[in-house]
Amino acid sequence: MKKLLKFTLCSFLLTFLIQPILSAENSPFKLDPIKDGILFGSGVLLSGGDLLLDNVLKVNRQEYKGKIYDKDDVNAFDRPFMNSYSHSRDKAADFLLAATMATPGLLVFTDQSEWITEAAMYAETLLIANGIKEMIKLAVTRPRPYMYYDPSTFPEDDIDEGDWANSFPSGHSTIAFASATFTSYTFSKYFPESKWRIPVTAGAYSMAIGVVALRLSSGNHFMTDVLAGATIGGLSGFLVPWLHTFNQKHDVNLALLGNGFSVSLALN
């Protein structure tokens, strides 16, 4: 997940070098230096801040001291969905997440001049979604469901790195729903009359739901973890491209009146 930053940073810098040459006149989405600077900067601050606080300063890093957790302490809503750790399902969730993150590749069927815009928007989406969920994880200490089962089944790496206490919110669910929502929304905007809109949307969200199911069944998350992650990701996947549907060209009109000048500003 941390390697995401390198990809998104390179994609965004490349975008601002090439986009003015490849901009499409009738695109449903428009890049804007100010707006994209704010979105990208926010994503970098959030995701980069987490890298600093978590990996360098090790803020709120939890050390497992052998405590035995009681399922009765878990709220009634989350308790029925708890599971012990499953290595195979954990890895399956990683694989399905990677596949879900690749769904924006379907936008390759748009005009080539749109690819840079799509890459920039997707980079901003992932950076912001990732940064928000990581900052929440830093602030909230919640043991994962598998901590309520036999200690011999605990994944050693997670215990050693303190990840066992980073249950809320679900990072996999966040990124999966950010990708699925981004793909569904942008595909529908580019191809509003396409018969593939519903299959693409259904397929992307089915994969995202599959990621959620695997994170629950592998013992990595509670139901409230994945619901929170899906909400963060879904909002990020929609709001970032939606903000790019507004054309930020500014028209300034001057008019000479009897008692002075009139100035009007129009946003197109």
Automatic annotation (TrEMBL):
Known EC number: 3.6.1.27
Positions of transmembrane segments: none
Top EC group: hydrolase
Keywords noted in UniProt: Hydrolase, Signal
Gene3D superfamilies for this protein: Phosphatidic acid phosphatase type 2/haloperoxidase (1.20.144.10)
Protein name: Undecaprenyl-diphosphatase
Keyword Ribonucleoprotein: no
SUPFAM superfamilies per record: Acid phosphatase/Vanadium-dependent haloperoxidase
Domain Phosphatidic acid phosphatase type 2/haloperoxidase: 119-241
GO molecular function, one term: undecaprenyl-diphosphatase activity
Signal peptide: 1-23
